Amino acid sequence: MATPAGLPPPAFGPASLSPAADFSFSAGANGSSDWQCLDSVWYRKLDVFDMEWKHERQLFDLFVVAAAPYGGPVACVRNEKVFQPAKKNIKPELQIFSARGRLLAKSPWTYSRLVTMSWNNDEVLVCVFQDGVVRTFSPQCEKLHFFSLDERIKVEGGLVQAAVGGCGIVALTAALNFYYNDAFDRSQTIVLPDTGLRGPPLSLCILPAAPCAGSDPNEKTFSWFSPSTTKLEELRIVVAAESGALLLLDRHKCVDLKLDDGPFVALSVSRSGRLLACLSSTGQLRVLSTAGIPRAIASPFLERQMRPKQVQWCGDDCLALYIPMHTPSGDVQHTLFLGGPKNEWLPFQYGTTRGGSVLLLVAEVDGLRIVTNSKTEFLHRVAASTDAVFSVGSCEPPAMLCYAVERYRAHDAAADESLRSIKQDLAEAAEACIDAATYEWQFEQAAALLQAAVFGRQFLDGGARQSCRSFVRACRDLR
Length: 479
Prior knowledge:
Strand order of the largest sheet: 1-2-29-28-27
CATH topology of the largest domain: Methylamine Dehydrogenase, Chain H
CATH superfamily of the largest domain: YVTN repeat-like/Quinoprotein amine dehydrogenase
Radius of gyration: 26 Å
Largest sheet: 5 strands, antiparallel
Structural class: alpha+beta
Low-confidence stretches: 1-21, 212-232
């Protein structure tokens, strides 16, 4: 194959393109035909791996399950509120699995009246009980800390609700008083201002104290909202009152946000902490920016007869709602709906059962992890670089570079023509291929994209050092 005039030949031949030499960049071969469009934004669902706990058929029905973000461990403990018939005497256990469902550790569970169980930012499992006792465990089921939040909690009838944030615990007593503990290893409890509640709230959540570390506010990855870089220094709790009011509580005061369409039955904060979704009993969804005083920025709508079992964010882009729906035959159809700001909803079907739950949704900074009894999937927004390479009929420079690689393997002179057509954009095309590789879960796809970037970089006149650094960074991240 002839090379463009004045440019050196590539440093490797077709044989050196293995192990991804047989990989095709065509849209159908790499799943872009399965992409789903939501409000002019493409999304895709990837199979990450098969689960090793396939024998746990009723895991999400009979157990309290808590999954750590960023592909962290999954903790399970028997749900004492659910009747569990057994042929033999089974002692309750705390079981902790890897993200793939491999059992990491287990220990006897001799405690009762669990109010909430969640992982904190340090990957410590925090368990809060009705009597105000907190117990923490490591991912290996090691007992770390044991303490009581406040003696006044028992006097007030114990806890009725609690929430675990990244840096502390919010607890609500039967007397409808809020307590906050800003440590996970000892009691440092303060009493929060009176909220005026007349009954337990329908939902509550803790707004993160700061945007998620590692998220780039300059990166254009959000379809609803460009996040603020303001750091939130104070504790903030959102409380959905039974009266319909949505309250914002901090350590100094309680403010009614004056939001219509209540009461709100579910609250969900995005993993970055920038967005809050509020689902009303009438199916109205209100999306709020958490910067400063929360304000509504979008209002999708859900049919009233649909009762979501889980509401989670897919990155900061859209909402995912898991809705089990009863069919005329008495079965339960399990459906995941992905919703955007213009009231568009994409359905993903997960089969039919006689009842129960089959999904666990875990919000991530860059997407949504979908855990089932058999496998884990990852649903996320298609990156611009991935779209440029794999979208159907793409003539963008990254796609042309990948086409040139395929033609080069076939000893076709069309490779030379493709390279000439993108000579001015070759550096950007190589960078886009490197970036696209970091979004791939399959080794062959990532390797082929990195090889395409190396191939294109060989024809640059100069300034390839930056591409080299980004290439090394991408390889490190993929490992």
